[in-house]
Amino acid sequence: MPSWFVIPTADNVIPPAVQRFMAKRVGGKVKEVPGASHVVMMSRPDTVVRHILSAYAATR
């Protein structure tokens, strides 16, 4: 099953290293958002939407 991860690099709730490990474990594609916090969809909504659309396009 294709998987994508948006990893906020300034996440203080789930360390980015842990998120990278989880993504690697399932063979997921990773997009990092420099300086973004844990709630990346609120702090960087345009970036998250762009990554969602990219993931969608990759499955079409």
Structural features, described:
It is a single chain. The chain has three helices and two strands. It has 60 residues and is of the alpha+beta class. It has one domain. The protein has a two-stranded parallel ribbon with strand order 1-2. β1, α1 and β2 form a beta-alpha-beta unit. The longest helix has 14 residues. The model has no long low-confidence stretch (mean pLDDT 96).
Low-confidence stretches are none
What would the principal axes of the Cα set say about the shape? flat
Number of strands: 2
Helix-strand sequence: EHEHH
Task: Report the end-to-end length measured between terminal Cα atoms.
Answer: 14 Å
Detail the topology: elements first, then pairings.
Elements: E1 4-8, H1 16-26, E2 29-33, H2 40-43, H3 45-58
Parallel strand pairs: 1-2
What's the quick description here?
With 60 residues, this protein is of the alpha+beta class. The protein has helices at 16-26, 40-43, 45-58; strands at 4-8, 29-33. The protein has one domain (4-58).
